[in-house]
Write a structure and sequence with these properties.
Layout (H helix, E strand, L loop, with lengths): L2 E4 L2 E4 L17 E4 L5 E4 L3 E4 L19 E2 L15 E3 L2 E3 L7 E11 L20 E3 L7 E7 L4 E9 L7 E6 H6 L7 E9 L7 H9 L1 E8 L2 H15 L6 E6 L2 E9 L1 H13 L6 E3 L3
Parallel strand pairs: 5-9, 6-12, 9-13, 10-12
Antiparallel strand pairs: 1-2, 3-4, 7-8, 9-14, 10-13, 11-12, 11-14, 15-17, 15-18, 16-17
Length: about 290
């Protein structure tokens, strides 16, 4: 999302304007030299920082979330956007999409009023009163147990944003989360972060397909009758039903869509549509 700082309170902003010093460390990725002496990054699935030289002994433990306040933990596929490595003001940040374990101790801050109603890094609308958070590297969304080491209060937050891009900060809490941890008054607090790795349910692949499914827009018109007639004719031509070819209205325009299609077949379906006389059709996501 974003980042400005006011006094001791960290305020995220979209990945376009922030301070950019990354001063924490994690188990380093190995740099492997190929025959052409080009560095090859080997990603690790385990990250642990700020908890001393014995960090590894904390990993692969089940995180205790019993009786914790905060958000309800559930399996969610990673978002379509916000999960690629990125560069901000010359600093490259890696997104740990393969992460399995993670713990870190550091300083938490919070962000609120200036960005209420703005888009987070994964495209959601930021609600300052919700229980959410921003992190530089975790996949979006992720669930994290946050413990305020100054009062031993713990909650579960849902990470859906990027940041904080400020020296020494490891997480930015929403105002709602910061209130539960008593962080709002002081602006910052020393915390422990523990990734809650949610097991994949039996329908995980179906949920991933739904998240990343794409649609084909064929036409857009301001004539509702024309749009409905076009959709009916297209269903006959392509042997599709009303769930597969449908009309939606956006700002006074009636648009004819096909879908949803899984990522691995969307391009093939697009070629079919173009081959029957609609060369201007294109792929898109529908929220």
């Amino acid at each position: 999302m974003k980042y400005l700082k006011i006094l001791s309170v960290c305020i995220p902003l979209t990945i376009s304007g922030c301070t950019t010093t990354e001063n924490y460390q994690y188990f380093p990725e190995q740099s492997v030299q190929t025959s052409e002496q080009k560095p090859l990054i080997v990603r690790r699935k385990t990250y642990a920082t700020g908890i001393g030289t014995d960090a590894k002994k904390y990993l692969h433990r089940q995180v205790n979330t019993a009786n914790l306040k905060g958000v309800q933990i559930k399996y969610e596929p990673y978002s379509r956007i916000g999960n690629a490595d990125y560069t901000l003001n010359g600093v490259r940040y890696e997104v740990w999409n393969d992460i399995e374990d993670y713990q870190e101790i550091g300083i938490a801050s919070w962000y609120g009023p200036g960005f209420h109603g703005e888009k987070t890094s994964n495209g959601e609308v930021y609600d300052q009163k919700s229980i959410s958070a921003a992190h530089k590297n975790l996949p979006l969304p992720s669930y994290v147990k946050v413990t305020n080491l100054e009062n031993n209060k713990s909650i579960v937050v849902r990470v859906n944003d990027r940041g904080p891009f400020h020296d020494g900060r490891v997480i930015d809490l929403s105002e709602g989360a910061a209130n539960l941890l008593d962080v709002v008054k002081n602006g910052t607090a020393k915390v422990k972060l523990e990734l809650i790795k949610v097991p994949e349910p039996p329908n995980a692949q179906q949920l991933k397909d739904q998240m990343h499914s794409r649609y084909i827009q064929v036409i857009a018109t301001n004539d509702q009758v024309k749009a409905n007639e076009f959709a009916r004719n297209l269903r006959k031509k392509l042997s599709k039903n009303e769930k597969e070819i449908f009309v939606r209205t956006y700002t006074g325009m009636y648009k004819v869509y096909l879908g949803p299609f899984r990522p691995n077949i969307a391009e093939k379906e697009l070629e079919k549509v173009r081959s029957v006389g609609y060369p201007n059709s294109y792929l898109l996501y529908l929220d």
